[in-house]
Specification:
By secondary structure, the chain is an alpha/beta fold. It folds into 3 domains: 180 residues, Rossmann fold; 222 residues, Spore Coat Polysaccharide Biosynthesis Protein SpsA, Chain A, CATH 3.90.550; 69 residues, no CATH class. It has 19 helices and 19 strands. The strands form 5 sheets. The protein has a 5-stranded parallel β-sheet with strand order 2-3-1-4-5, with helices on both faces. Strands 8-7-6-9-17 form a 5-stranded mixed β-sheet. Strands 10-19-12-13 form a 4-stranded mixed β-sheet. The radius of gyration is 28 Å and the shape is elongated.
């Protein structure tokens, strides 16, 4: 993997490159670092010609700016040298992280400024293969000038022009631009998040597992947590969950303020009575309240409503049919307060019989559909955090990140695949989604009969609809199949349910109706009606 740092003079390329090399090596990666003027072939030409002659020609070219055919030939030789290096890295260093302090685009900017580019030169440099992760570093011209004034003779006007040129190049080549005037640690985290995005696209989960342990000097003291519980006519299970939360909070650091928000999605508003009964059982710095959704608004809306009122640094979402082991909250606080790359954090889920139900979720992509699959085995080659595509049932997210990605999409995904959609948006922000392996911290999922006889059969309509909308939003090419493969798979699964045959057929029909509506919404959006 090639990571190339580009940018104007004074933006901190060399300093940041050195820090990245230290970080990646400390995490156990093989790392190669290359500076701008480390040529592979041309260094032998330098030896033949002699350093004195080279320095004289350099002065004539850069300082005196003399015009000569050899100065127009030089960009071609440089391009060839770095292209051969690029091929070497791609072929022989595929398992390493290659950090490049400058890239061919930097050479192009220099030659363009000096006036030694020809139309062919320009084309070659601007069509040079992109690095796996390319970052253009920039800083305000005044700051760049102050950083370089003791070692460079350039005027402030030079830095202003150079900064504009690099930002224009970033837009032209669609390369992210990172302002380095902020604290070094924050700049490094921002760059590494671009690395996370690439590794996820390439499914390099073992590499992501290593990166998830990155700490730097990051310390995010968590003083408040908000627990958001959507509920629907399951007051007995809600009571069990609240009892387990009381045990959790009693073992939590007493300085942490805890907020519990129960969002009732029923028409009868029964959950508020349960909340009132438990209110006096929690310690002083615990707030417990109930909100009413209006009835039948489904989980995504309920979670967003709870998040709207939440004041915690971390938002913990948990369905009402769960119990916590006793140290879950402390584990969440510890991890999200220590590891800046983690964006969605979960724990292993067991069923009531003690069988492992979920170690997160996996997306299996086929040529015609995406299959969502609960991971039940713990991979041997991972650390304590298992990297996953999404997390069902229980997960924690930093509040700022939740707001940044826009929360749950309760329009497209009121129920069904809403957690998949949210996790994919978190991954796109360069944040890791992972499930913690800890024998003392886990979730017990109290299924009962819910999975066999759904309380709201309408959710099968929503599942079909959500499936198409997920494809439209994240996997556009799959919408061409019109959901037919998914209808077949869902029908096979539904026919295996232990409920009356007529009920099974009605559920399949609801799913097909959902697929049709999803396709209709996609078409309306394409035609500009949404």
């Amino acid at each position: 993997m090639i990571i190339a740092l580009m940018g104007n003079d004074g933006s901190g390329k060399t300093t940041i490159a050195k820090e990245l090399v230290k970080i990646f090596r400390s995490l156990g990666f093989e790392v190669v670092c290359k500076h701008e003027y480390e040529y592979a072939i041309l260094k032998y030409l330098f030896r033949i010609v002699g350093l004195d002659k080279i320095e004289s020609e350099r002065r004539s070219m850069i300082i005196e700016r003399r015009k000569s055919w050899k100065y127009c030939l030089w960009p071609f030789l440089v391009w060839l040298d770095i292209f051969l290096q690029y091929l070497y890295f791609k072929i022989f260093k595929r398992k390493a992280i290659v950090v490049l302090d400058r890239y061919p685009y930097d050479h192009y900017m220099s030659f363009e400024y000096l006036g030694y580019t020809l139309p062919l030169t320009k084309w070659l440099y601007l069509h040079f293969p992109k690095p796996d992760v390319g970052i253009i570093l920039w800083v305000e011209p005044q700051i760049a000038y102050e950083r370089k004034k003791d070692s460079h003779d350039y005027s402030l006007e030079y830095y202003e022009k150079q900064t504009r040129s690099y930002l224009k190049l970033a837009r032209r080549l669609d390369i992210p631009a990172v302002n380095t005037s902020k604290e070094l640690t924050q700049t490094l985290i921002e760059i590494i998040r671009n690395v996370v995005c690439l590794l996820y696209k390439r499914r390099k989960f073992e590499w992501l597992s290593k990166l998830s342990t990155l700490q730097l000097d990051f310390s995010n003291e968590i003083k408040r947590i908000s627990i958001i519980i959507p509920t629907y006519k399951r007051n007995d299970k809600l009571s069990e969950l609240l009892r387990s939360l009381k045990r959790e909070i009693d073992s939590l650091d007493s300085s942490i303020w805890v907020e519990i928000i129960v969002v009732d999605d029923s028409r009868t508003k029964d959950a508020k009575n349960i909340v009132k009964r438990f209110a006096s059982e929690f310690r002083e710095n615990v707030s417990i309240s109930s909100q009413w959704s209006g009835g039948d608004r489904y989980p995504s809306f309920c979670r967003n409503l709870g998040a709207k009122y939440a004041r915690g640094d971390i938002l913990i979402f948990i369905d009402d049919d769960n119990k916590l082991s006793g140290k879950v909250l402390q584990t969440v606080v510890t991890y999200l307060g220590s590891f800046p790359l983690i964006g969605m954090f979960g724990l292993i889920n067991y069923d009531e019989k003690g069988n492992r139900w979920s170690v997160g979720g996996k997306l299996v992509k086929t040529p015609f559909s995406i299959i969502t699959k609960n991971i039940k085995e713990i991979p041997n080659n991972y650390g304590k955090l298992v990297i996953v595509d999404y997390i069902p049932n229980f997960y924690a997210i930093p509040r700022k990140l939740f707001v940044e990605v826009g929360g749950f999409d309760d329009c497209f995904f009121p129920q069904g695949l809403e957690e998949v959609d949210l996790a994919l948006r978190i991954w796109r922000k360069g944040r890791i989604v992972g499930v913690m392996v800890d024998k003392d911290s886990y979730i017990t999922h109290m299924f009962g009969e819910v999975s066999k006889t759904p309380a709201r059969p309408f959710r099968y309509f929503l599942r079909g609809r959500s499936r198409i909308l997920l494809y439209h939003k994240h996997f556009r090419n799959l919408t061409s199949w019109k959901g037919i493969p998914d209808i077949v798979l869902r029908s096979i699964k539904t026919l295996m349910y232990k409920i009356p045959l007529r009920s099974r057929i009605l559920l399949i029909q609801d799913y097909i109706r959902g697929v049709k509506e999803g396709l209709m919404l996609v078409e309306r959006e394409r035609n500009g009606f949404m």
